[in-house]
Amino acid sequence: MAAGKAESQYLHVLSAFLAMEPVDSVISLARECSGGSLTESVQRFLWETCVKAAASGNASYAKRLLKKLINEVELEKSEVLDEVYEEYALHMSAASKEDTLVKENIRITKFISFLFPEGLYKHPSCPSSRKLVVPLQCSLNMLEGDTGCSIWPSSLFLSEFVLSYPELFTDRSCFEVGSGVGLVGICLAHVKAKKVILTDGDLLTLSNMKLNLERNHLNYEDELLKQHGEAESTRVKCIHLPWETATDSELSEYRPDIVLGADVIYDPSCFPHLLRVLVALLRGPTKRDNGSLETERRSPAVAYVASVIRNADTFNAFLTLVDQMDLSITDLTEELKPPYELLPYMHSYDRSSVRLFSISSR
Ligand SMILES: C[S@@+](CC[C@H](N)C(=O)[O-])C[C@H]1O[C@@H](n2cnc3c(N)ncnc32)[C@H](O)[C@@H]1O
């Protein structure tokens, strides 16, 4: 039992390192492995298993972690491992590229590990290793046009939701608006959604998303291939879909069972367009030319939208428009909150800040 606990604590440290959590947070998780102090074996784990073996490819992050580790061990008046000093010296001699990375908007790769607790061992979405590790290329800069290349808390929440309730998504046709880095789509593919249609209005975001699908070994169909008549059977599609210009006839092609959106409720000027897109996607069966009704959907379509409410007025403006556009919205946060934390090591992710809504046609 005690060995199992220690193993899971070390797994949290490694997962936090790979997800590039703040170094303070990684060190505090490391302390938990040894009852509070940064013992030799904890230092060795950070040096050997995290920095040396699992290096995330971001040398300046590893350097910051080593610096923090050395500072804290010295403050404790304990011995810093020679190997830790040597590794830090190696990183010191390489010029720091961190500032350049942020300035030039160069992307880094974070590895998001969803850790399935023992109780979920037989769960349909639980891999045999009990962890699903998703590499994601993203930006260090959340703003300045790189919004869609960052990982936002609502997509972490929606991903936990998808993995916790696979039965809602398996064999369903799913359509995401504002997909960003593509994390939710990767989780949808993992639970075997029938179709995964990922969309974004920003072209740079879309190309970053495609790269992430490739890194996760997912074949996707993009619009260019479609024009050449290839890749028809691919389950994942990536589509450039700015809400402002998406036409009703374009949207009526998809008829998804489920629409998803993470952190897309923040810019009031986009709300009428976003809601028009939702209305078109959630619309019930329409008549075919021969007068019969389309019956492809098993049940009425629903949208699951996760959001951090940063400004109450902005959110109320969204609710008013939802009502005017004949949609109904329900807060499902308490009812459908993922029952297990699949990202227990990720202290930077405040799960309680995210609300989950369902939106459907009235
Ligand atoms: C805050 S980010 C959230 C990204 C991702 N869903 C997540 O939670 O990590 C908002 C996303 O919506 C996309 N977006 C914003 N306005 C849009 C619009 N008018 N049309 C289409 N996509 C838009 C952005 O490009 C970005 O990817």
UniProtKB/TrEMBL annotation:
Residues 17-89 form the FAM86 N-terminal domain. InterPro entries: FAM86_N, Methyltransf_16, SAM-dependent_MTases_sf. This is FAM86 N-terminal domain-containing protein. One of its GO terms (molecular function) is transferase activity. Keywords: Transferase. It comes from Brassica oleracea var. oleracea. Belongs to the class I-like SAM-binding methyltransferase superfamily. EEF2KMT family.
